[in-house]
Amino acid sequence: MSVGKKTAFGVLLDIDGVLYVGDEPIEGAHRALRELRALSGGVRMLTNTTSRSRREVHEHLLKLGFDVSLEEVLTPAAMVERYCRERDFGSVTVLVSEGLREDLAALESTPLGAQPDAVILGDLGDGFTPEVMNATFRAMMDGAELVALQHNRYWRRADGLALDVGAYAAALEYATGTEAVTVGKPARAFFQAAMADLGLERGVMIGDDIRPTSVGRWRLAWRASSCEPGSTTRASSPHA
Question: Lower Cβ count inside 10 Å, N or C end of the chain?
Answer without folding.
Answer: N
